[in-house]
């Protein structure tokens, strides 16, 4: 194949250019490190690629993928576990200009298959289990005509990754993609509605890399432990070494704390992403065992609000100058804001525990945030009278370079989520909150989780905070039972791990007394206890209040 001369980097907006830059500036620093077993003494063994090696490997794969028909614009299902191959493949696809389609396997086989069918991809790159799935359910893969197996190919057709990989290396002429060109389709988990494919352009990825670096002060040479695979993809672009944790990424709430702590200590990890569920499990273990993590200077938590108590617990392992940042955002817009643990614990904790909501900080540079009046219908055009005054609770809307433009072939969802404003647009987060006089966002819960009881509207995060103050409550959930507009507010309670559930009647009276003492919860008269809440599959932190509402209605 004749190679086209590569255009100057300044004319290209392609996230893979960051990797090539890092391969030149820090070629021998480790880019990706993966656990690969243990020795006879039980010590963890690792394999890795340096930035130079990752750049070369992705070049070799890009050339082979291009020859195999996985070329610019080709939607390509990627079903590969976090590994060296996963990183090399993602950057190879970006270099080619192909469009990786990424679906969270934790959402369940049925929902995952529907997402894959909806993407109408033309190529599939996956581990053997992925190809077994497509042979058992061929109807969902009718559009796919190129099959590549990562590992051993069994009874199906197509090529293996080893056959695709070019044995001859020379710098691959990267696709000259532009800011508005589609780079990937990332599916939401569907934790608060149907899973939707979100259009990511190269410009959105580029804005995210720049803003994440600036917001958190990340510098090349740092070492990251990304416990959520998609966040790991930013590491090579940021010049950070990604340490792939020894865990099931679909079950962060069940992670082995010792393995997380082992990885941090073994590699001198400086940065970690952790969902609130993982933060709680590892923090609880660390506090109970007096563990300290002196190299860790930054923890970024997202996926759901991390409570002040959860943050304080994990902070017992950190040095005084380390920070836990609670990030706010969504698949469609990330990041929007962040807030450091020092301010959470010293400035806003008492207000959050009184029911003011969870402060998630000021909008990051380049992001505009407006709070608009609550409505469930589409809003076609922006008008200034949509915006509410500071202090009023409404829907959070955002605008900026890292905000995605829409969903893959879902015009109705686009209409519900986007508000046109001249040449730009606002994205409706589907979250409720308010802005204070310091331009800080206070998160109050999902819009479709609010409970409307006559003339009073109740919001999940403020109401639940009142009950979470009780020492025996691990978490609570506000749900509405009955017809819309005339719902009966009910609080579901999950007790602390290890709590035997003794004297529930007495506990119920104590919780009702807490409710009566606050004007935001004084109308709540029903408390229900549930052993374990249903939670989202991605971060194990968002409570499935829709399922709890159905359970509560049956219970009552």
TrEMBL record:
Family matches, as Pfam families: AMP-binding
Start and end residues of each AMP-dependent synthetase/ligase domain: 20-408
InterPro entries: AMP-binding_CS, AMP-dep_synth/lig_dom, ANL_N_sf, ATP-dep_AMP-bd_enzyme
PANTHER family, sorted: LONG-CHAIN-FATTY-ACID--COA LIGASE, NONRIBOSOMAL PEPTIDE SYNTHASE PES1 (EUROFUNG)-RELATED
Descriptive protein name: Peptide synthase
């Amino acid at each position: 194949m004749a190679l086209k001369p590569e255009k100057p980097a300044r004319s290209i907006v392609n996230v893979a250019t960051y990797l090539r830059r890092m391969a030149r500036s820090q070629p021998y620093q480790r880019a990706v490190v993966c656990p690969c077993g243990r020795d006879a003494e039980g010590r963890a063994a690792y394999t890795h690629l340096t930035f130079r090696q990752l750049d070369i490997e992705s070049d070799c794969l890009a050339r082979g993928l291009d020859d195999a028909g996985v070329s610019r614009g080709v939607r390509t299902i990627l079903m590969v576990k976090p590994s060296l191959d996963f990183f090399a493949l993602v950057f190879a696809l970006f270099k080619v200009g192909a469009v990786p389609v990424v679906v969270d396997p934790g959402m369940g086989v049925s929902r995952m298959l529907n997402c894959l069918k909806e993407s109408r991809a033309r190529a599939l790159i996956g581990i053997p289990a992925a190809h077994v799935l497509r042979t058992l359910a061929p109807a969902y893969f009718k559009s796919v005509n190129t099959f590549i197996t990562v590992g051993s190919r069994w009874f199906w057709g197509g090529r293996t990754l080893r056959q695709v990989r070019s044995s001859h290396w020379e710098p691959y002429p990267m696709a000259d993609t532009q800011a508005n060109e589609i780079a990937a389709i990332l599916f939401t988990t569907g934790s608060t509605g149907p899973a939707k494919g979100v259009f990511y352009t190269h410009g959105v990825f580029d804005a995210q890399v720049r803003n994440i670096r600036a917001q958190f002060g990340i510098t090349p040479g740092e070492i990251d432990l990304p416990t959520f695979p998609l966040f790991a993809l930013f590491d090579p672009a940021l010049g950070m070494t990604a340490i792939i944790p020894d865990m099931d990424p679909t079950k962060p709430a069940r992670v082995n704390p010792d393995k997380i702590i082992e990885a941090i200590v073994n590699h001198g990890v400086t940065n970690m992403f952790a969902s609130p569920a993982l933060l709680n499990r590892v923090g609880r273990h660390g506090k109970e065992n007096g563990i300290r993590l002196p190299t860790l200077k930054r923890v970024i938590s997202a996926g759901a609000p991390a409570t002040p108590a959860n943050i304080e617990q994990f902070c017992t392992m950190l040095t005084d100058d380390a920070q836990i940042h609670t990030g706010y955002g969504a698949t469609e817009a990330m990041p929007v804001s962040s807030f450091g643990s020092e301010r959470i614990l010293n400035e806003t904790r008492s207000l959050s525990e009184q029911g003011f909501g969870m402060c998630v900080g000021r909008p990051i540079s380049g992001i505009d945030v407006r709070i608009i009046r609550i409505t469930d219908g589409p809003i076609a055009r922006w008008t200034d009278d949509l915006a509410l005054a500071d202090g009023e609770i409404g829907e959070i809307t955002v605008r900026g370079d890292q905000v995605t433009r829409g969903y893959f072939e879902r015009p109705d969802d686009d209409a519900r989520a986007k508000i046109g404003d001249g040449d730009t647009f606002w994205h409706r987060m589907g979250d409720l909150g308010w802005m204070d006089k310091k331009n800080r966002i206070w998160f109050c819960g999902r819009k479709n989780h609010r409970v409307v009881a006559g003339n009073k509207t109740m919001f999940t995060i403020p109401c639940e905070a009142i009950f979470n103050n009780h020492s025996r409550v691990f978490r609570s959930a506000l749900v509405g039972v009955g017809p819309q507009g005339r719902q009966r507010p009910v609080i579901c309670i999950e007790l602390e791990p290890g709590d035997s559930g003794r004297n529930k009647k007495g506990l119920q009276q104590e919780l009702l007394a807490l409710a009566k003492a606050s004007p935001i919860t004084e109308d709540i008269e029903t408390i229900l206890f549930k052993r374990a809440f249903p939670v989202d599959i991605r971060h194990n932190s968002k409570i499935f209040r829709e399922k709890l509402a159905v359970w509560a209605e049956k219970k009552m």
